[in-house]
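agent: user wants the full assembly modeled, not chains individually. Plan: 1) parse entity lines 2) check alphabet per entity 3) run joint structure prediction 4) return tokens. Steps 1-2 passed, two entities, 868 residues total. Proceeding.
--- entities ---
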Amino acid sequence: MTSPQDPTSSTLGSVDAHGSDRGRGGQLGTASADVYTVTRKSRQTSFRAVWWRHALALLALAFALFPIVFIVSSAFNNAGTLSTSGLLPTRFGLRNFDALFNDPARPYWTWYKNSLIICGVATLATLVLGAAAAYAFSRLRWTGRRFGLLFILLVQMFPALLAFVAIYITFATVGEVIPQIGLNTLWGLLLVYLGGAMGANIWLFKGYFDTIPRELDEAAKIDGASHARVFFTIILPLVRPILATVGILAFVGLWGEFLLASIFLTQADDQTLAVGLYATRNANQNEYFGQFVAGALLASLPVVLVYLSLQRLLIGGMTAGSVK
Amino acid sequence: MSETRSSEVDQALDRLEPTGEHLEFSSHTPWWVQVVKWGLILLVVAVLGWMAQQVIEAGHWLMVSLIGFIALCIIAVYATKRAIPAKYLFPGVLLMLLLQIWPLLYTVQISFTNFGDGHISSKEEAVNSIVANSVREVEGSSRYGLNIAVPEGSNVATGDLAYLLTDAEGTYYVGTLEGLEELPADGVEAGPTGRIISAPGWTTLTPQEVNERSDDLADFGVPVFNDAGEQTAGIRQVGLSEAFIGTPTRVYDEEADTITDTVTGTVYVAEDANFVPEDGEGAALPQGWREFVGLQNYTDAFTNATLREGLTKVFVWNVFFAAFTVVATFLLGMAIALLMNDERLKGKGIYRSILILPYALPIYVTALVWASMFNQDFGLINNLLGLDINWLGSAWWARVAVLITNLWLGFPYWFIVCTGALQAIPSDVKEAAAIDGAGAFMTVRRVIMPLLLVAVGPLMIASFAFNFNNFGLIWLLTEGGPFVGGQSSIGSTDLLITLAYRLALGGAAPNFGFASAISVIIFFLVAVISYFGFTRTAALEDVN
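--- prediction returned ---
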């Protein structure tokens, strides 16, 4: 890209052109003489051409951000009520968090722990069940394979939450006999979440499994590997990217689930963040607002961090057909 | 990402190179794998056995056979070397059958019944309760010490009621709608008067909880049977801590299926899941039972004028809400994606990271915060804009508030999807349009939009189906309200799913049957939407 005779100008050129147009920067570098002025000019013109894009983009940012700024500033607003909250905190402090952590009627950390356990276990199950099913659909040959895949896809159109009445009555009945998995238990809710664990994202899984060359497992089979060996030691390590994608999507989706959790968890000690925070705010919309918003901020942190650090993986999954 | 993967594939292939490493796989399965495998099988079977024991004690034979069948399947699938695909599919399929397909079928079944407030129990239980309820105390007979309880683990607000009784000799009993049973004294804690304070397997109700269930308790009574199985007496509560045994004044005639009140002489006949006076005068007995009502819930929805009007309103709003949301979020997301789709623009990564935030936050955070921001007196929106709009209190403003919130929630998704799709559009298409004299707007309208729509069409249908049942947003933001016109059943921003939720679980008088019928209507609509989704996707695949 650069000419050996003129290292200085070429360096300048490539540095200045950085980010805008590398190809042109390189050509300018070889032209040596007034590289600096030319690139500066091109940078100016490019800014002149795109400044309105920045302006509109900032407008979009303002629209996206103002509720979030409101959340953050209300959380750190010592007055702690809705009537005193605004885009800027009037009295900065941590009193809301203090109230949140020391409210005996609202065990925030228990909710947090419940959410982490439920989402963690259900996500793990989604991965195990989904990957196992995808292996059967992608690698093994059996009658009814195509029908089975279509059937699972079809069932996914009707998520469990649409049948909440039946779920409520079923678990009320089961709970009378086996209280450990009835209503008001985390295990019961977990079971309901597991109902869709295999089917959710089966198409993402199977699509990815199909891209792994079959020669690999055939070769291993010739060498005497069992189906389980092929699955655990050859396929699973190769599909880690899709495991990560689906795992994150499942976790984020469950973290925000409200309907089924609100049916199941009516007692404060069993609740997840979704149900607990909903109850906190509704206890008194003005008075408990500070406490609610502090809890909401902390509840958002895991998913926001996941989104920001793993954007690439998530965007792949989002465009492949998953809708939040 | 693809590079790393292909290099991993290479590594895996290297491992398989025929360099004398065949032995790696032909060796026997390591011992610890066997141990783990059998350990897991035993653990699962043990858990099932424990569950079966609980169920046997309660006498639910259908559940017992189901658990036994599952255990047999597990052994057949995992303890043998056959049925290899089943080994991978069994757990997922089992969970899907029990927790996804069964609820769907059961919903359909419930939608053909009158299951709901006043129609919870079976007919036999209803008759028992009516007779037991009509007892009059025989003067001079001794009273029982009483506490009121529900089975342990069930909800104190909805669980089946029971009397925990102590008779004059100090023997403990449990009285339910099925009759009186002696309660083993082990673990029973009693007060100084002999009244039971707590008993294993039962959750006693606090006075406040008893008060909240006073309506249920008013209809509750414990039947007492003689050795021939005929009900001879009933036990009823007097106040909070005493109960009496007495002879019933209402008698059930099984052959004629009538109930006769021996005091007033009224004969009640069974009609529409209630006992009503034969001569048609006077009120029906409050204890009804659950029965099959055929298509009545559906015909109600379509023929009852008030219901039909309400449901039509909800349906129209539901479709509009989903359609507007998809179009508006798509247009805004696409506009921002086009805006950012300029290689000269710097800082795109930062813009994108921030723009994704509304989508990343959990719905219960964003919807509840927006609800607070729409507060008329203290809310941010009115404060910032200097308005005094009663956002969530008036029907039209509440709808606007819902649409604004969902626009905010949904546009990042389309921004990201469109950014990806735009990058896939070859630049020569745009150049060709420019050469043909198309301006920027024309290029977008006639060239880029059609290409985008082909790419994101299936996602739009998926998004429509999702928003059609966007329970979380509506419930957290408005709870379906506001309710106008002095009624509290159908709100201005209700979707079908929030309406069904309120009918089934929201109020004091649940109507599971009708709520299930609405769910079934939703199933049908979702099926139609999905059908379009499938054909659309299939059409696209044909193109490719």
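agent: reporting back. The CA atoms of residues 300 and 362 of chain B lie 38 Å apart. Chain B has three domains: 27-110, 123-277, 301-543.
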